Amino acid sequence: MNKEINELTKNNEKLTVETILTQWSKTYNPDGKPDWSHIFPYYADEIVFQDSIQRIEGIEKFQAMCNRLTKRCKSLVMDINHIIQDDQTVFMEWKMTMSFRFFPKKPIFGSTRLTINDNQQIIEQRDYYDLWGDIYDGIPIWRRIYRWFMRTFFG
User: Which domain range does residue 51 map to?
Assistant: First the structure.
């Protein structure tokens, strides 16, 4: 473990809703690229991250994924609408608005479940969202085709 992580977790301070709201709000930037570097110490070396696109294991791969997203985004904003916590789980509902090089800003709605280990670090992050549905809803012809397809084959 690096020194920054040791300092953060040596007292086993509880990772709280307030900490998450404060620290995660510094991550996203409406006028520029996001920066996750200050929240990496809250993640365990063995972090398992999963969303609708990928599954990543380990802090180095997680950091690389975040850095790739930073390179691709012109801006990224996350509004946390609801957040609750029990002993080892935090659940939040959010709206993330992203802008890429050639595309306008587009909101994606989702939720995240964080699992916290005994050292008060995030050991698992699972993000839930419908990436294609939220993107296609902004494109009139594709919206109808996608929603028809989803209703016909999955609804």
Answer: 3-154
Six-digit token pair at 49? 């991250």
Q: What is the CATH number of the domain that holds 17?
A: 3.10.450.50
Indicate the helix (H) or strand (E) that contains 4: helix 3-9
CA distances from 58 to 8, 23, 98, 124, 136 (A): 19, 21, 25, 10, 32
Longest dimension (CA), the chain: 55
Are 40 and 60 in contact by the 8 Å Cβ rule? The answer is no
87 CB contacts (<8 Å, ≥6 apart)?
A: none
pLDDT tens digits in sequence order for the chain, 155 residues long:
444 444 554 445 788 999 999 888 877 666 667 788 889 999 999 999 999 889 999 999 999 999 888 887 777 788 899 999 998 999 999 998 877 766 677 788 999 999 999 999 999 999 999 877 777 777 778 778 877 887 787 77
DSSP string, 73-120: EEEEEEEEEEEEE-SSEEEEEEEEEEEETTS--EEEEEEEEEEE-TTS
Count of domains for the chain:
1
